[in-house]
Write a structure and sequence with these properties.
Layout (H helix, E strand, L loop, with lengths): L4 H18 L41 H14 L15 H15 L5 E4 L5 H8 L4 E4 L9 H16 L3
Helix pairs in contact: 3-4
């Protein structure tokens, strides 16, 4: 069904607002100067990268082959044999943080996550959702983790862990 006139007006106003903002936005988290026009033609498809890009999917309209290439490129960049690694491309930092924290919790169920107060805002939310034990560490003025606070927290946690707390 076609859009109602008032809905079209709202979309037109939003488009105009974005057109103006594009001129002054330098990023966060993306750069406005990226030219997406070569990808426009793919918007007509219901692409879904569901599942593991390395084990196939029953939904064939995906970009898993490209995803595997990205993982391989990052493996080589990190000097890891691509045959010895696995990964997938996320939609952004929050999803990447969520999967990393999920793996940490699964591999180390009794572990403790230490993160700085300047860590991406999604980390504390994800830790709460996953019921993962964690300690927030102070940051230095430049945003870098406060290593003295980290050391003190680790030592305090070790002592408490040994005494059964």
């Amino acid at each position: 069904a076609p859009l109602l006139p008032e809905d079209q007006d709202r979309l037109d106003a939003l488009f105009e607002e974005f057109t103006q903002l594009e001129k002054i936005s330098i990023g966060y988290p993306c750069n406005q100067r990226f030219d997406y026009s070569p990808l426009y033609r793919f918007l007509r498809f219901a692409i879904n990268n569901v599942g593991d890009p390395f084990s196939g999917s029953n939904y064939r309209m995906n970009t898993h082959a490209f995803e595997r290439e990205v993982v391989t490129a990052f493996a080589r960049f990190a000097q890891i044999d691509p045959a010895d690694c696995w990964g997938y491309v996320t939609n952004g930092g929050t999803e990447g943080n969520m999967y990393g924290l999920y793996l940490a919790r699964e591999l180390f169920p009794d572990g403790m996550v230490y993160y700085s107060e300047d860590t991406h805002y999604s980390v504390s939310k994800i830790l709460r959702l996953q019921h993962t034990r964690s300690i927030m560490i102070r940051s230095q003025r430049d945003g870098e983790i406060d290593y003295a606070d980290l050391e003190e927290s680790v030592l305090t946690h070790k002592k408490g862990h040994r005494s059964g707390r």
